[in-house]
């Protein structure tokens, strides 16, 4: 689960990390009051969306020379004007894709006199099963770009969970960032605070880009991206309350209500499969035969007729879908349950695109019989290769 920058900074503040004072607003008329509560003389006005690259992004239908989603204001009035210009518009960045995201929140915060921009992140390293730190002197840039062109400027190390974080780790980060004096001491303390936050809140990624050294020698978390382990949210009610459903794909949101593993993609063939591995293999073979999958959808091993019905409805709600491939290998999941769910869904929402069904495993003969006697215009397939070839051919005409 992702959260907004202003929410991440509130969590940082709770753990004693240095952040600027700021206010989040959802209406333009709130902006002047919010900006007036800050000291100035410089205000930073930031669009709040779940995507990076906001400062370099562009608004749809932008006028010539218009700035991106991060703007500077030199007065309360100017901060309010910039807020009004951004709210309700669609911001496109390299992470949103061409569709962009609508800006429904603006964060106004005090500006800073920046001397140096640095990069600091914590993440779960699955190779070592530990929390790792990533530090670089190249702050303000995409870390992927730094890794590709100047990898020597990135320092990475993991923390042994048995001993936990210590001042040694803080000093290692501070040395890697080339800090001195007051900034060095503050960085050592910050590392411990970030690690504590990461563990206690079940964070999966905490990225501060940039971490700045100001002209007065102090450090500050100027921007922050925070992701959380969705499997832990049952024990993190405070974190779960920060969820912004308007930032999520409506289809993925609906799927989560039925405990379906669904991820929307950009292709044209909808997939309904049981098992993550089989789902990935299904997407691969669709590409092999010359088309693209419209989604990843794993209905799981214990899906009910109702769950399958909802999965089918979610697939058909995607206007990009020009064909559907149902690929089920019945182990725990029974083929007759899938067949009944597909029939129920088609009767409820209709079938306007080609449908190929491949069933194998438990109760496969009964499943095929149910579909065969349903009167639906369904294309049967004998195996995965046959199914992929048939659905791609049906879609491509």
How would you describe the overall organization of this protein?
This protein is an alpha+beta fold. The protein folds into 3 domains: 21-110, ATP-grasp fold, A domain (Dna Ligase, domain 1, 2-Layer Sandwich); 114-240, D-amino Acid Aminotransferase, Chain A, domain 1 (2-Layer Sandwich); 250-396, Rossmann fold (3-Layer(aba) Sandwich), CATH 3.40.50. It is 35% helix and 25% strand. The protein contains 13 helices and 19 strands. Strand 8 (114-125) and strand 9 (130-136) form a beta hairpin. Helix 5 (167-176) packs across helix 6, helix 10 (305-316) packs across helix 11 (335-349) and helix 11 packs parallel to helix 12. The longest helix is centred in the middle third of the chain and has 20 residues, at 181-200. The mean pLDDT is 91.
Name its key features.
single chain, alpha+beta, elongated, Rossmann fold, Dna Ligase, domain 1, 397 residues, D-amino Acid Aminotransferase, Chain A, domain 1
End-to-end separation: 39 Å
The CATH architecture name of the largest domain reads: 3-Layer(aba) Sandwich
**CATH level 4 superfamily of the largest domain:** Succinyl-CoA synthetase domains
Number of domains: 3
Cα shape:
elongated
Averaged pLDDT: 91
What kind of sheet is the major sheet?
Answer: 6 strands, antiparallel
Give the helices and strands, then pairings.
Layout: H1 5-14, E1 22-25, H2 31-36, E2 43-47, E3 58-59, E4 70-73, H3 76-86, E5 90-92, E6 101-102, E7 106-110, E8 114-125, E9 130-136, H4 143-149, E10 154-159, H5 167-176, H6 181-200, E11 203-214, E12 219-221, E13 225-228, H7 237-240, H8 250-257, E14 261-264, E15 269-273, H9 276-288, E16 295-298, H10 305-316, E17 323-330, H11 335-349, E18 355-361, H12 364-372, E19 379-380, H13 384-396
Parallel strand pairs: 15-17, 17-18, 18-19
Antiparallel strand pairs: 1-7, 2-4, 2-7, 3-5, 5-6, 8-9, 8-11, 9-10, 11-12, 11-13, 14-16
